[in-house]
Amino acid sequence: MSQSALLVSGGRATISTDPPSVGLKALTCLADTRRMEQSVSPELTLTCPRCRTRFPSALKMDQETFARSNIGPMVELCPCCRWASRYEARDYYFHMPS
Ligand SMILES: [Zn+2]
Asked: Does residue 59 contact residue 23 with C-beta atoms inside 8 Å?
């Protein structure tokens, strides 16, 4: 019967007055945008020996990774004429995507 009285005196209610972390969110968004802008880097590119179309390689790697890895020979398909051709490491080059 004195249970409710005990609850009131013992249980100290803590009302959170912290404002929502809007400022922190905005900062995170800004950082994300910056990272996206920086990710525009040259693409690993090939030139089709048949139709001379330049197309991005199926291998997605940056210049640093490419320099360290020993790729090829690789068979890749030209998106223009559907010609599958074998490409050596020397056929690959980096081109800025337009
Ligand atoms: Zn082609």
From this structure: no
Q: Which two tokens stand for residue 80?
A: 């223009």
Between the CA of 93 and the centroid of ligand 1 the distance, in Å, is: 17
Determine the residue type at 76: E
Compare 47 and 33 and report the one with higher pLDDT.
Answer: 47
Asked if 43 and 96 touch (Cβ cutoff 8 Å), the reply is yes
**How far does the centroid of ligand 1 lie from the alpha carbon of residue 88, in Å?**
16
CA gap 10, 38 in Å, rounded: 56
* CA angle in degrees (0–180, nearest 5) for 52-39-57: 25
Distance 24 CA to ligand 1 centre (A): 49
Q: How far is the CA of 95 from the centre of ligand 1 (A)?
A: 17
Q: Which pTM value belongs to this model?
A: 0.59
